[in-house]
Design goal:
Blueprint: H1 39-45, E1 49-53, E2 59-63, E3 71-73, E4 84-86, H2 91-94, H3 100-111, H4 113-129, H5 163-170, H6 180-191, H7 222-228, H8 230-236, H9 242-258, E5 261-264, H10 289-292, H11 300-310, H12 312-316, H13 321-330, H14 333-338, H15 341-348, H16 350-361, H17 363-379, E6 397-400
Antiparallel strand pairs: 1-2, 3-4, 5-6
């Protein structure tokens, strides 16, 4: 405050280099601190360390008298009279020698510099890459093959199915194989696992078939819904992935409210649910943040549109979209008190209530937004480069329902 340009000048000499205040831990860990090698692990495993208070006043460890000293060059030779300084350890360093699993790793790195190099390269790559998402987002000549932490997926079916035929199979017979509310909820749960902060999740891989994702509270009823689609999957076999079938069934359920939408196939199926371990979504809207800060990165209005198309609570009202939005926005106090909690969130928030009224007063605008937001949600997590998607190519999409297809039946939504 007294000297804004130099607020922390220090009271010890110049306040810099050897005169700087530190954590209290003073000293290097190896005799060659600026050189990459495995000496640190040799030092950790060495016997003869004793505890003492360092020059900074903190407890640390040094080699006891009688042990061959370990000396490193002084960090600031121009400011000190001593040309060398003693190698030190902290308690957390020496703990590596006493924990069986860490000691085994320390011994391996001490005996093999190549093992240390390899392990460090893999760990560093994981550290700086883990939030990038799938391997397809990485570019450059030094990109290694897909790593386990990237949860790589198998290649999609080499000969994709005719999606118009799958569409027809989903609507074969007097009633849809899967009620629209269940199909929309299944597809929404599968795709809404996407997290834009680290590009993990999404319906590519159809991990919703496996634990833990199938057991998330948000995905209640998913296992039963998947079971009702097994007949269609059996007809088309390996040419149709579960991921494409789930999203196509959801597409068919939403189409009566959105009109024709682009469908982008070519998804593949994961062999396990490992990629869902850290992706548990909110089970239902408990506050307006569900819509305004949705992990998929969709806007609040987009989330409101797609959520209303997929919510079983909305389907249970048996109201067409415009009627539902008008009712939820203008509900009487008695109606609000009787609403499920997630519907009441929409009513109670001014921004969401305004959006609902806009959807009610302009059904065409709501329909257009849903037709844009739903395919976008279904394609999240699919990458063909750092930011591009295989669905960016118009040739990769198909408008569904086909113009000559029978109108989809929405059994309960």
């Amino acid at each position: 405050r007294d000297d804004p340009a130099n607020p922390w000048p220090g009271l010890c000499g110049s306040g810099r280099a050897a005169d700087a205040f530190t954590s209290g831990i003073e000293g290097p860990w190896t005799t060659r601190p600026t050189r990459w090698d495995n000496e640190y692990f040799h030092n950790v495993l060495r016997a003869g360390w004793e505890k003492h208070r360092g020059p900074g006043g903190a407890w640390q460890w040094r080699l006891a008298a009688g042990e061959e000293p370990l000396l490193a060059p002084s960090a600031f030779p121009e400011q000190t009279s001593a040309p060398t300084q003693r190698v030190v350890m902290m308690t957390s360093d020496l703990a590596l020698a006493y924990d069986p699993s860490f000691r085994a790793a320390a011994e391996a790195f001490a005996s093999s510099p190549a093992a240390l190099d390899s392990a460090f390269a893999a760990a560093w790559y994981k550290l700086v890459t883990r939030d990038m998402g799938p391997h397809a987002r990485c570019v450059g000549p030094w990109v290694p093959p897909p790593q386990p932490f990237q949860f790589p997926l198998p290649k999609p079916p080499p000969e994709p199915v005719d999606y118009a035929e799958v569409w027809a199979a989903l609507h074969k017979g007097a009633d849809p194989l899967l009620p629209a509310a269940d199909a929309a909820a299944l597809a929404y749960g599968c795709a809404a696992s996407y997290r834009y902060t680290d590009n993990q999740g999404g319906c590519d891989g159809a991990r919703i078939r496996f634990s833990p994702e199938v057991n998330f509270p948000a995905n209640a009823g998913a296992l039963e819904a998947i079971g009702k689609l097994r007949g269609v999957k059996k007809v088309f076999g390996a040419h149709l992935s579960w991921a494409d079938l789930i999203t196509l069934a959801g597409h068919a359920a939403v189409a009566p409210h959105s009109g024709p939408m682009p469908f982008c196939g070519g998804r593949t199926d994961a062999t396990d649910g490992a990629g869902s371990r850290w992706l548990q979504p909110l089970s239902a809207p408990s506050s307006a943040a569900y819509f305004k800060e949705h992990p998929t990165g969709l806007t609040a209005r987009e989330v409101l549109a797609v959520w209303a198309a997929a919510s079983r609570a909305v389907a249970a009202t048996r109201r067409p979209p415009a009627d539902f939005f008008r009712w939820v926005a203008l509900a009487t106090p008695t109606e609000v008190a009787e609403m499920p909690a997630d519907l009441r969130v929409v009513h109670d928030d001014a921004e969401l209530r305004e959006a609902a009224l806009d959807f009610a007063s302009d059904p065409a605008a709501h329909k257009a937004l849903l037709a844009k937001a739903w395919p976008r949600l279904m394609s999240l997590g699919r990458f063909d480069g750092p930011a591009s998607s295989p669905c960016d190519d118009p040739a990769a999409t198909l408008m569904l329902p086909p113009t000559d297809a029978p109108a989809p039946r929405a059994s309960s939504h």
